[in-house]
Amino acid sequence: MINIGILASTKATDMQAIIDAIEAKKLNAKISVVISNKEDSYALVRAKNHNIDAVFIDSKNKEREEFDKEINSVLKKNNVDLIILIGYMRWLSEWFVKEWKNKIINIHPSLLPDFAGGMDKDVHEEVLKSNVKTTGCTLHFVDESKDNGPIILQKEVNIDENETIETLKEKVQKAEQEIILRGIKLFDEGKIKVDGGKVRILE
User: Phi and psi for 27 in degrees, rounded to 5?
Assistant: First the structure.
């Protein structure tokens, strides 16, 4: 069983899918702690509703590395094996990324490398403006670059004629939840290998 630490700034809707899968015994994992840089984040409420340790760490007036070291101590205290970023509205320090190399995964609401660098609805807005026919989501390891770490899984989503930011977000979130759960399972089974900046999924 792996211990998961979740970093979130918003509602962490995708986290609910992880909680549900764990409670339904479909996932051999435990969410040990949820950490947020926003005191009013619904992610913390979601955690408390399921008796998961919920921790608010204030990032105001702190250097990025100083803040990340506070997060690090909470993660270590909770024996975390894998960190998942879900709607986490901060860039991680280089120190933190090195400390947790190939143990931090992020879900991005587009098919990377397309529409990298943005967050949440901004990404969907850019996608719709570009008139592409498909978008999707990407589960990737976090490295020192912005949204450019080794890709673990991707899932495509078709864009309908009258698509809005809200309807697209909903569709993409469903796809996100599918690949997050699959990614956790593969990580737990030791089937994800990072080689030369690329991910190989072992059979």
Answer: -135, 125
Q: How far apart are CA 184 and CA 4, in angstroms?
A: 9
Distance, in Å, from the CA atom of 176 to the CA atom of 180, rounded to the nearest integer, reads 6
Buried b (16+ CB within 10 A) or exposed e, 65-77: eebbeebbebbee
- Which residue of the set 50, 108, 124, 140 is catalytic? 108
Instruction: Tell if the pTM clears 0.85, that is, is over it.
Output: yes
Task: Indicate the domain borders of the chain.
Answer: 1-100, 107-203
Homologous superfamily assigned to 107-203: Formyl transferase, N-terminal domain (3.40.50.170)
118 by DSSP, 3-state: which? Answer: coil
pLDDT tens-digit readout, 82-122: 999 998 988 899 999 999 999 999 999 999 999 998 888 89
Active site annotation includes 108: yes
Q: What is the pLDDT of residues 125-135, one digit of tens each?
A: 999 999 899 99
Q: Give the pLDDT confidence of 138-186 residue by residue, as tens digits.
A: 999 999 887 789 999 999 999 999 999 999 999 999 999 999 999 999 9
CATH fold of 1-100: Rossmann fold (3.40.50)
